[in-house]
Design a protein that fits this description.
Layout: E1 5-8, E2 16-19, E3 24-29, E4 42-48, E5 55-62, H1 68-78, E6 85-86, E7 94-95, E8 98-104, H2 130-136, E9 137-139, E10 145-147, H3 150-157, E11 160-162, H4 163-171, E12 194-199, E13 206-212, E14 222-227, H5 229-239
Helix pairs in contact: 1-3
């Protein structure tokens, strides 16, 4: 409908990446049929048409609904995306940064680094459905239940930046970190479980991040981010140029 090109993930085709063909040219579709995923991610390498020497990685993922331990392993595997060295046709090596990794985390943002106006993870007593509580929390060594923030912690610890937090911190606005899931008695208060990550160096080219309401269309709201293309190209040429 938007006249975009796209790829569906392997297996159950539960994830997808789409791109504008007048802005990007796909150079590679990643093999993401990785063991351990119930819903496999999608990842592509895209070349900027305005800068043929610049390639970026874009991905989409949907972490396990049911198991904290599975989500942690899936998040660790997603760190393959910023750790890829691609060898293009000229036989010189390039490390392509992650422009965007969209993620239904089925878990929460790391409480460390929360910015003003950002909703926190629910407290265990706020989740009335015992199965949902088991899906979204784990037992600490002390025996108390703690909400699952580990995937977000793994991805940010591995060099990816939460675009919403970054932009909220630098703009002083809370709109970027608005809740992406609405309040439900069984699942607790409205909070963030959907994220858009980017490689740390590319975050400085962000110009806008907002949460687009999807009420009536989806039970998740959409995280929208924009980058300054000129600055993005400049950063990529400075830090991700061809290397022998």
């Amino acid at each position: 409908m938007l006249r975009m090109e796209g790829e569906l993930g392997p297996g159950k085709h539960a994830t997808a990446v789409y791109w504008r063909s007048d802005t990007f040219k796909k150079t590679e579709t990643w093999d993401t049929d990785w063991p351990g995923f119930w819903l496999h991610p999608t990842a592509v390498t895209l070349r900027l048409r305005d800068a043929e020497d610049i390639e970026v990685v874009c991905g989409s993922a949907h972490l396990s609904y049911a198991a904290c331990t599975d989500r942690a392993g899936e998040a660790e595997n997603l760190l393959r995306l910023p750790d890829r060295v691609h060898t293009p046709d000229d036989e010189q090596r390039r490390k392509a940064p992650v422009l965007a990794l969209g993620l239904d985390g089925n878990s929460y943002a790391d409480e460390t680094g929360r910015v003003p106006g950002e909703p926190g993870a629910p407290r265990p007593e706020q989740i009335k459905d015992v199965q949902h509580l088991a899906h979204r929390s784990r037992h600490a060594p002390s025996g108390e239940r703690i909400m699952d923030c580990e995937p977000h912690r793994i991805l940010t610890g591995g060099g990816l930046t939460d675009t919403a937090r970054f932009h909220a911190h630098h703009s002083g606005q809370a709109d970027p970190v608005a809740a992406t899931s609405e309040a439900k008695p069984a699942q607790g208060p409205a909070t963030r479980i959907d994220f858009l990550f980017t490689s740390g160096l590319l975050a400085s080219a962000l110009t806008r991040v907002e949460v687009v309401p999807m009420t009536g269309l989806s039970d998740h709201h959409t995280v929208l981010a924009e980058w300054d293309l000129t600055l993005l190209i400049e950063i990529c040429r400075d830090h991700f140029g061809l290397a022998a």
